[in-house]
Amino acid sequence: MASFKDFILFLFVALTFSSINVSIAARHLLDTPPAPTLPSIPSMPMPTLPPLPAIPTLPTATLPPLPTSQMPSLPSIPSLPKLTMPPLPSTNLPTFPTMPTLPSIPNVALPPLSAVPLPTIPTTIPQSLHCPQQFPHSHFSPSTFNCKPVKIS
Known about the structure:
With 153 residues, the protein is an all-alpha fold. Helices cover 21% and strands 3% of the residues. Keywords: Signal.
């Protein structure tokens, strides 16, 4: 839901900046002549600062020694009794019935293919399709084209 609110906010900002007044103001800024150069600031003399006072040395504090106490030993973990699993019951599982055998399919010989010849595919383009000599109003002369039958490989 927050992304939808962000989208609405960005849409509002985009619509605000796309208004005609913003476009006119931008055009006005582009059309204004460059600003005149400002006069240079004269250089000022640098004041001399007095030397800084020396930092006093602070006394070092001595810390008392930390007490060295013995950590108590951790208690030992009690041992758990060994668990044994009871044996699985030995039941005789029923036997599954055997699947019946499928009958064999006899081999069938296919009939011979017919002796009908396949149609031939033309391998040349007729001259009338690629040569403009039959078109009297053509802007090209027939010598521009190779007006021989073209062999398709």
